[in-house]
Design brief:
Blueprint lengths: L9 H9 L19 H72 L1 H21 L4 E2 L11 E7 L8 E6 L1 E3 L4 E3 L1 E6 L4
Parallel strand pairs: 2-6
Antiparallel strand pairs: 1-4, 3-6, 4-5
């Protein structure tokens, strides 16, 4: 700063002497708020982006490995459950097979008893299907229901048109879960 009449003081003259024309101003004299060079900023962003990409790729690999492991566990669990269910259903049928073998053993001794034995085994098999969730039905006397019945023929009968008059083969299941539809003959009405 100059004195009152534009004269430079001694301290100011000494400070000016340190900086000659064309000489670079020292770094501490530069303002601190100055923007970084665009190249340096791009380089630091590039390093930041690369580290983020590496971290995201690592997360993705871990997530894919976890998904693959979960899929394998799920497949093993499904196989285990299917094997267990298959064993349970097979065990339900073993008494039926045992009784059929007994009926065949008695066929030689008393052929008339075989018919009674086979009827008992059939009843046991039907009861087994019912316990497994597939009760037997035939719908004779009821209106034909294409959801539960399979029409294999029609006939003239003393029943209203569309009524099931003969069950050729019984059906098994419920209206929500049909194992096999009943094969039926349906009335075309009176002649």
């Amino acid at each position: 700063m100059s004195g009152p009449w534009g004269v430079t003081t001694g301290e100011e003259a000494a400070g000016k002497a340190e900086h000659t024309v064309g000489e670079a101003v020292p770094a501490e004299a530069e303002p601190k708020d100055r923007e970084p060079e665009p190249e340096a900023e791009a380089l630091s962003l590039s390093r930041l982006e690369k580290s983020q990409i590496i971290a995201l790729e690592s997360q993705l690999r871990r997530a894919l490995a976890d998904l693959d492991n979960m899929r394998k566990r799920f497949d093993r669990e499904i196989s285990r459950q299917l094997a267990g269910e298959r064993a349970r259903v097979t065990a339900e049928w073993l008494p039926v097979v045992d009784n059929l073998e007994r009926a065949l053993e008695h066929a030689v001794v008393n052929p008339e008893a075989v018919v009674e034995g086979l009827q008992a085994v059939r009843d046991q098999a039907v009861a087994t299907l019912d316990r497994l969730g597939y009760p037997r039905y035939d719908d004779v006397g009821h209106p034909f229901d294409p959801e539960k019945d399979e029409a294999v023929g029609t006939t003239v009968a003393d029943a209203p048109e569309g009524t099931v008059v003969v069950a050729v083969r019984p059906g098994y299941g419920t209206s929500e879960n049909i194992l096999r539809p009943a094969a039926v003959i349906v009335s075309r009405g009176a002649a």
